[in-house]
Amino acid sequence: MGRERIYLCLAHMSGNEEKYIKEAFDTNWVVPLGPNVNGFEEDLKQFHGGEKEVVALSAGTAAVHLALLACGVGPGDEVLVQSFTFCASSHPITYLGATPIFIDSESETWNMDPVLLEEAIKDRIEKTGKKPKAIVPVYLYGMPAKLDEILEIANRYGIPVVEDAAEGFGSLYDGKMCGTIGKYGVLSFNGNKMITTSGGGALICPNKEAKNEIMFYATQARESYPYYQHEKIGYNYRMSNICAGIGRGQMTVAADHVAHHKHVCDLYRELLADVECVTLHENPSKKYDSNYWLNTILIDSDLKVVGEELAYEEVIQGAVGGAAGVTHESKSLHTDCEPNKNVEAMRIFLDKAGIEARPLWKPMHKQPVYANNPAYLNGVSEELFKCGMCLPSGPYVTDEDVHYIVDKIKEAIIK
Ligand SMILES: *Cc1c(COP(=O)(O)O)cnc(C)c1O
């Protein structure tokens, strides 16, 4: 029948990316600086309201790392981070010799629970005698967090907020652009994000001085001498002028991308309305304006799905969805925290129908590598992880695709 596989969110070069890359080649700006880097930073600055400064970096992970460094995070410090996230939110805390302290989610936005946040701050101060150095909320799948509450607490205790807006590019909270609300804002342009530079990221900074400091650390921390003089440890984190060219092209269609993801959400809402036991994750109120980077559903635990008895029978080869890179062979069919059988069965059913679907992020406090880290929990993220699933939402996903996906979801349900 020749139907193409439908992916979650593929890179889509529909702007004038080639023009900017060609310019880079023609002028030999094939280094991590140049007109495209400056132009991309200016485009990002304007897209985010024009008041804050932006530094283009080699990855979103690098942006998290440098933001924490700029907040003074160092060995022996603690950082409060949302547990329900991709590992790039918390790993850089460990790069700095500090300890991630995990905060569970509330069930409306699926992001950092402000109640647990304050509980954690009080408890950490009591236990260690020190204030945590930073707070890292995440905008999971594009959904803004409860920022009024989080910022009120952060300000009261005098702790800086680093927004992990890697998935929240173009999302708004109370009319404000995500990434511009805390002290620093992290963006990612990995291949599957709202816009891409093939790989890359950026840090939104409060002012020129902060931007200069980030640039200093992103370029190996060199002092002004006619030779290499180092008084600080730096990193090689600048974005290449080639990648920035892709970014400039993507910025010409960024608003279209966001609009498309929202349109796909509207269609899922309409088509899933009469599907019982399957719930689409949506803006909890008018204050929230998610970019719907990935549309996600929850599947009731008692819903019966075709093939449930076979779920988890086979060892998975590589990472789900064929993520790039090398994975270790898994040692067992199960872990102590995994999606429900009906969710895994749905994933396999959709996979066989040529549809990529994935579980939600597995909470960091359930990851073996963080087994000994303090965590402030309410059970929400674990429950969401067990019931949730990401559906195709990117620029290549057509209306016809969404109809097909929902038809297949209905087909997989045993009445
Ligand atoms: C993608 C992502 C990042 C940054 O990742 P890079 O691949 O390094 O650009 C950070 N946090 C979250 C939540 C992400 O999804």
List the helices and strands and how they pair.
Layout: H1 17-26, H2 35-47, E1 53-57, H3 60-70, E2 78-82, H4 91-95, E3 99-103, H5 114-128, E4 134-136, H6 147-157, E5 162-164, E6 172-173, E7 176-177, E8 184-188, E9 201-205, H7 208-218, H8 241-251, H9 254-272, E10 278-280, E11 288-289, E12 295-299, H10 341-352, E13 375-376, H11 380-387, E14 388-391, H12 399-412
Parallel strand pairs: 2-3, 2-4, 3-13, 5-8
Antiparallel strand pairs: 1-9, 6-7, 6-11, 8-9, 10-12, 12-14
Helix pairs in contact: 1-8, 2-8, 5-6, 9-12
Describe it.
This protein is of the alpha/beta class and 415 residues long. It has helices at residues 17-26, 35-47, 60-70, 91-95, 114-128, 147-157, 208-218, 241-251, 254-272, 341-352, 380-387, 399-412, and strands at 53-57, 78-82, 99-103, 134-136, 162-164, 172-173, 176-177, 184-188, 201-205, 278-280, 288-289, 295-299, 375-376, 388-391. It has a 4-stranded mixed beta sheet with strand order 1-9-8-5. Strands 4-2-3-13 form a 4-stranded parallel beta sheet. Helix 4 links the parallel strand 2 (78-82) and strand 3 (99-103). Helix 1 packs antiparallel against helix 8, helix 2 packs parallel to helix 8 and helix 5 (114-128) packs parallel to helix 6. The two termini are 28 Å apart. The model has no long low-confidence stretch (mean pLDDT 96). The structure holds pyridoxal-5'-phosphate. Pyridoxal-5'-phosphate binds at residues 59-61, 85-86, 88-89, 138, 164, 166-167, 188, 190, 201.
